[in-house]
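Practice record 12: protein with fe (ii) ion.
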Amino acid sequence: MTQVLERAAAAQQYTIRPLGAALGAEVLGLDLAQPVGDELIARMKEALNQHGVLCFRDQDLSEPQQIAFSKLWGPLEDFPEENKTVAAPTVYNVANVSAEGEHLPDTDHRVIFQKVNALWHTDSSYRYIPAYASLLYGIEVLPESAEGGRTGFSSMVAAYEALSPEMKARIEPLHMVHSYEHGRRVYGSLPPLSNFEKNAVPPVSHPLVRVHLDARGRRSLYITANAGNEISGMPLEEGQALHAQLIEHIARPEFCYFHPWKKGDLVVWDNRTTLHKAQRYDMARYRRVLRRTTVAGEGPVFGPYSQAVRAAGY
Ligand SMILES: [Fe+2]
């Protein structure tokens, strides 16, 4: 029986259509609740490499089904905070609705916590090995008439390529400091991190220029606004000014696509080559429930001076 179902899934026909000029594509015609074979995942990984963001339309996924599909992309990350998840530690609910279905007020720290996501970022950049991909599933979404609530994406490949030669040379050797605790600096009303959380995710530094060995040395910017604003080895103010200049650069509309959510969308993005941000919406007026799973990265961020990159000749 299983083999018959797997063949049926492998034979599923699908269409990929670009959504934005710089990145993003929608995938139509797949039912991800059906068993999905290795070959289809390999093709989807290629498509993700090409488009940065894939939106699988019209899905109907339970939490275990989303976890099962996510694991086909690689091992999952656990969310680093205590007591923030509903069931599995691999699931993070991006919602202003509690597990019991109650619409939470703006002052609830579970809601404030999500406002950190309103800054451009890439998921779990505060880890030594940051995430490969995130999968966010639309369970309850805003009505079409509502303002805001889109998820913005920006292509770090396009943003890097558009930098001036002088800026490319300037950032070539630099690292940014990434710290999970930075969200607490931005939103002081959040409860402080516990020792467990501090020990789980101490600050790390990553190169600002990311070199992708699996894409023939392709380069992208690797930067975030929600996990720090300091550049390793530079005076504080000079580093923060450079960080601000780069964050302004990556927000240019020609690098971006803003996704309006439809119920049943499963949006997958490549955290290695894209940034994203949550656009604000009237949280007191509208309920929204999105469910995220995160696929772990395969290794640390390589920069132009990493041994592995030099050994590969890029
Ligand atoms: Fe995020």
